[in-house]
Amino acid sequence: MHDDIKTVLLTKEEIDARVQEMGKQIAADYAGKELVVIVLLKGAAWFATDLTRAIDMPLRVDFMVASSYGNGTSTSGSVKVKLDVSEDIKGKDVLVIDDIIDSGVTFASITDMLRHYKPATLKTAALCDKAERRVNGLEADYVGFKIPDEFVVGYGLDYAGDYRNLPFIGILKPAVYARK
Fold this sequence. Notes:
This protein has one domain (13-148): 3-Layer(aba) Sandwich (Rossmann fold), CATH 3.40.50.2020. 24% of the residues lie in helices and 31% in strands. The protein has helices at residues 12-29, 45-54, 105-115, 174-178, and strands at residues 5-10, 35-41, 59-67, 80-83, 93-101, 121-129, 142-146, 152-153, 169-172. Strand 2, helix 2 and strand 3 form a beta-alpha-beta unit.
């Protein structure tokens, strides 16, 4: 698995430190509010677990499954929602957590959908931001790292379901996805 990584982009230590900083900022921003965190599965599970532990305040957690990638390396352009939220978010402060924002297609689709549930506020957090790939101008409210336009895996990010369990984020060798 490690042989498929071209280079380590973000070490475990860098990720851990930034997640702690983000957690402190989010806790300060939402102090005294009723926060509901919505985690976009599967990729954001690793980031969301660490981030929610770093947010030192009461919060509720819910999950959605949505994807625009399938097993490819770029968005299909259409978002499929396989699991919707179960929490009633009407009138609550909602933070959507995803592993990466690149084209912005998934984030835009999910936030548009969630607005119909009438939350008091709706913000977004992403561990990684590939701004070069954005097609809609959407920006996450909280961003861990701005990264280059490379296909990355690890810390929840995958290629066709693999590499999620790497403790770092690395650039996948193009030869890996060229052979599938």
